[in-house]
Write a structure and sequence with these properties.
The complex is a heterodimer of chains A (272) and B (261).
Chain A (H helix, E strand, L loop, with lengths): L6 E12 L2 E12 L3 E5 L6 H8 L7 E6 L2 E2 L5 H8 L2 E4 L11 H12 L4 H14 L15 H12 L6 E5 L7 H17 L3 E6 L2 H7 L2 E6 L2 E6 L1 H5 L4 H8 L15 H6 L6
Parallel strand pairs in A: 3-8, 3-9, 6-7, 7-8
Antiparallel strand pairs in A: 1-2, 1-4, 4-5, 9-10
Helix pairs in contact in A: 3-4, 3-5
Chain B lengths: L1 H31 L8 H40 L6 H39 L2 H7 L4 H39 L4 H11 L2 H28 L5 H31 L3
């Protein structure tokens, strides 16, 4: 994935620390245009942090990020706000504004960022809600929605401004099988019909392998495996195999580092 | 041992100074964002309603009780010198100059300030602020600025209501219960209370109190650690810091306004 002509996002030598903890340590990632790219890895590997770096909510320590040909490293606040109009993001919780109903939530980015009249906004909102199958739920408040419905409303809101790309933060977590199926179908169909570029951050192997065109697996600040889902299944790395097949023990140990079990149990020191 | 204590103290002071710095930066950014309120005027009106109307009953009841207590206390002190007829002046001046703005600000911090912090803090916890940013909407302009301006606008009004009801409470106790002459109560008040020195100074004080309590409340909410414990701590800090800042600022403003010989 080194063809920068077909890449929408190009991340080079990214370094990011949180306090003492190293999150990214010279990471390189290319996100191809028009495809669904998944970023996977165990919890705490900085997947969500990567989305925040791409959205300009966190600045990288060093390295470069190019989005749609622009180096965003030196972007001013104003430039970020302009770029964000072309980005959609689906947060893990949906992050709907709780004081507005479904209709107003989807209308919110349109009302704030465009000069369209209410009639036009109504048309657009109903179109977006129809796309996620929730046109009939437009008068409900966020508290009245199930988790899956809230995420679909958030998806309608994320595509309200017809973005060039959309970022999904753990879209499948905590979903029942039906909602999960609906989300998988929606992510694929929206990506293809709206000619979007999608980035999915997830650790749900099964769903992600089914939907992604290209996958990066991250661990300890580095890319440890990448490829199409088929190629990744054949990846010789033990680490990648452990992750993909969800094996409890392997290069990532089941046991947290400790002294020998026998020694620990029979020692007479009154330590916890 | 001592060195370790010093290191801990140094780290704590630095963290505190950093927070103070962030509070000032946020304030400067909010001031810069004030013109955006003309586009979102309905949000300002909404916040005036939430902060003002919902605090109204509390202020009304508190003002009446404080006025009644002033009536009793003032009467007994003045009666020793045979000056009961000056009760109106004592009640009016102490309420309009001091008790009105200060107690209203303390109650406002407890009632509205804590609610603001919890609301903004929870918006941060539930990623609503981050989602606004990603929708190219600045949460400072959308959420913080309308609340700050509403706080500054509402507090003087609440303080005025507190003072008016307090004076009526003083009259109820002084005139109806203790038998002070109603004409003396009102006429002495009218001749001694000055619109600039007393009433205007009280209003200026409450504008400052509105600014500081709302600023603390929105900053604590915006700067909260996004966990349930973080929101609970931020809410407590809002009430404590607001109360202390109001009392300290009251001393400074009083010294500036009435400090000359």
């Amino acid at each position: 994935m080194n063809d920068s002509n077909t890449s929408l996002i190009s991340i080079k030598d990214l370094v990011f620390h949180r306090g003492e903890q190293i999150i990214f340590d010279g990471t390189n990632i290319e996100i191809p245009k028009g495809k669904i790219t998944a970023i996977m890895g165990p919890s705490g590997t900085g997947k969500t942090t990567l989305l925040r770096l791409l959205g300009g909510q966190l600045p990288p320590l060093s390295g470069s990020i190019h989005i749609d040909g622009q180096d965003v490293g030196r972007f001013s606040r104003k430039q970020w706000y302009l770029l964000r109009r072309r980005m959609g993001m689906l947060f893990q919780s949906g992050a709907l504004l709780t004081d507005m109903n479904v209709f107003d939530n989807v209308a919110f980015p349109l009302r704030e960022n465009t000069a369209l009249n209410e009639r036009m906004i109504r048309h657009l909102v109903l179109m977006k809600l129809q796309a996620v199958g929730l046109r009939g739920a437009r008068t409900l408040m966020p508290a009245e929605l199930s988790g899956g419905m809230a995420r679909r409303v958030a998806l309608a809101r994320a595509i309200a401004l017809d973005p060039m790309m959309i970022m999904y933060d753990e879209p499948f977590t905590g979903q029942d099988p039906i909602s999960m199926g609906v989300l998988v179908k929606l992510i694929r169909s929206l990506n293809d019909t709206l000619h979007l570029t999608s980035i999915i951050v997830s650790h749900d192997i099964h769903e992600t392998l089914a939907i992604a065109d290209y996958i990066y697996i991250l661990s300890q600040g580095k890319v440890v495996g990448e490829g199409t889902p088929e190629n990744l299944q054949k990846n010789p790395s033990q680490w990648v195999q452990q992750f993909i097949h969800g094996m409890p023990d392997g290069p990532v140990h089941f046991d947290y580092p400790a002294v020998e079990y026998y020694q620990d149990v029979f020692s007479f020191e009154k330590t916890p | 041992m001592i060195l370790q204590q010093l290191i801990i103290l140094g780290k704590a002071s630095r963290a505190w100074l950093e927070r103070l710095g962030r509070a000032y930066i946020l304030f400067a950014y909010m001031v810069w964002g004030i013109p955006s309120i003309f586009r979102r005027f309905h949000l300002f009106i909404q916040q005036v309603y939430f902060l003002g109307v919902f605090s109204f009953l509390l202020i009304l009841i508190a003002g009446f009780f404080v006025g009644m207590v002033m009536g009793f206390q003032g009467y007994h002190t003045l009666a020793k010198f045979g000056a009961e007829s000056s009760l109106g002046v004592v009640v009016a001046l102490s309420i309009v100059r001091e008790l009105g703005p200060v107690i209203t600000a303390l109650l406002f911090a407890g009632r509205a300030g804590s609610a603001l912090t919890a609301e903004i803090g929870l918006m941060k916890v539930t990623e609503q602020l981050a989602s606004m940013e990603m929708m190219a909407v600045d949460p400072v302009k959308q959420v913080l600025v309308p609340r700050l301006l509403a706080g500054i606008f509402v507090l003087p009004l609440l303080a005025a209501i507190f003072s008016a009801v307090g004076i009526l409470g003083g009259e109820f106790v002084g005139v109806a219960v203790l038998g002070v002459d109603s004409g003396a109560y009102w006429s002495q008040m009218q001749s001694s209370v000055d619109i600039y020195n007393d009433i205007l100074n009280g209003i200026v004080k409450s504008i400052f109190f509105g600014l500081i309590t709302t600023w603390i409340a929105v900053f604590e909410g915006y700067d909260t650690v996004p966990t349930s414990e973080g929101v609970s701590r931020a809410t407590t800090r809002t009430v404590v810091y607001s109360a202390l800042s109001v009392l300290a600022l009251d001393f400074i403003l009083t010294a500036l306004m009435f400090g000359e010989h």
